[in-house]
Design a protein that fits this description.
By secondary structure, this protein is mainly alpha-helical. Helices cover 74% and strands 0% of the residues. It has one domain. Helix 1 runs antiparallel to helix 2.
Amino acid sequence: MSENRKEIKLEAVGWKLWLVLTAVSYPPAFWVSYGVCYEDMKDGMLPWILGFFLSAFGAGVITTALNTVLQNRVEKIRSEERKSNKKNKKKK
């Protein structure tokens, strides 16, 4: 059974993850932005827009960090493969 299972190679995450993280983090970001705004500004669009920008920025930071980790991992695997290929060529 384990032979039939396909291995998922995740090399990068992109806009889909950013969109999901933005949507998930929007309610807490709105709550924070609503608490930060002055009373006379709470009735307008400022808390809504500020909450969106806070959640989008946070999602961008998380997505960038995750992409960096994934790409470093892939680069490490590729460099190990190149080293093993060089050793195999020298043995032949």
